[in-house]
Amino acid sequence: MNKYEIETVELKAPSLNRNDLAYAMKYRYACKKFDSAKKISDDDWNAILESGRLAPTSLGFEAFRLLIVQNPDIREKMKQYGWGILAGLEASHVVVFLARKKSDLEFDSPYIRHIQEEVKQLPPEVDAAYRQKYAQFTTEDYKTFESERAAFDWSSKQAYIVMSNMMTMAAYEGLDSCPMEGFNQDKMTAFLGDELGLFDTNRFGIAVMAAFGYRDEKPHRNKTRRTLDEIVQIVE
To answer: Which metal ions or organic cofactors does this protein require, according to UniProt (predicted)?
Structure first.
């Protein structure tokens, strides 16, 4: 197998205890106060990153990138672009989920060519079929090329799937996380991208951020969710 392949074909169906995952999902909550002295081990963090790498994305285009901000000075300056003091910036790891912009999502862009030819290694006839369907997808079905914003919103959805996978893995490991939307996207992008040069703002924007670490608080109340009867509609 090449470096992009992940064994899938010969894997047997998992036989795991569903209660373990259910427990982890109940344990997880949006932690607002982290213990800054406790750091996630390299093994645990690599497992969290791998769960992000294995996340599904639309068309398998992986239209995201992970920017992990560990510099304390940068984190402190990030607070001024959030709602008050951004919760979570004292956590062990802070991830900025970057989503690709329209220029990178064009079928003939260097990025999509890399995905199709080097990562997926698709034969020409399959790639051609992708091209036809993608044109329909972007202009008629989901209209993701209707505007720059529509393209970015679509790639941001993929970044959220990645974040969800990572938060679930963290909970499974008994670690805590907090998704963060409480910040000004334009100002945070200008700071991290344009001012610090941590990413190319012509190709990427910030979709969302998340903190990972160990809680330094107890949850303030029990989790609440609507019942299944309220959220499920069955059509037979």
So the answer is: FMN
Helices (H), the chain: 18-27, 42-53, 72-78, 102-105, 110-113, 124-136, 148-172, 185-189, 228-231
Three-class SS state of 95: strand
User: Dihedral through CA 219, CA 224, CA 225, CA 227, nearest 10?
Assistant: 140
Which residue ranges make up each domain of the chain?
29-105+145-219, 109-143
Flag whether the pTM goes above 0.85: yes
Q: Indicate the SS3 state at residue 124.
A: helix
DSSP annotation of 34 reads B
CB atoms within 10 A of CB 41: 11
At residue 167, does pLDDT exceed 80?
yes
Confidence of residue 26 (pLDDT cuts 50, 70, 90): very high
Asked whether residue 84 carries a pLDDT value surpassing 90, the answer given is no
Sheet order of strands, 176-180 included:
64-68, 93-100, 204-213, 176-180
* CA–CA dist 115, 62 (Å, integer): 8
Mean pLDDT, residues 136-151 taken together: 97
Whether the Cβ atoms of residue 218 and residue 39 lie closer than 8 Å to each other: no
Look at residues 136, 142, 144, 159 and name the one whose alpha carbon lies nearest to residue 63. Answer: 159
Cα torsion 49, 53, 54, 58: sign: positive
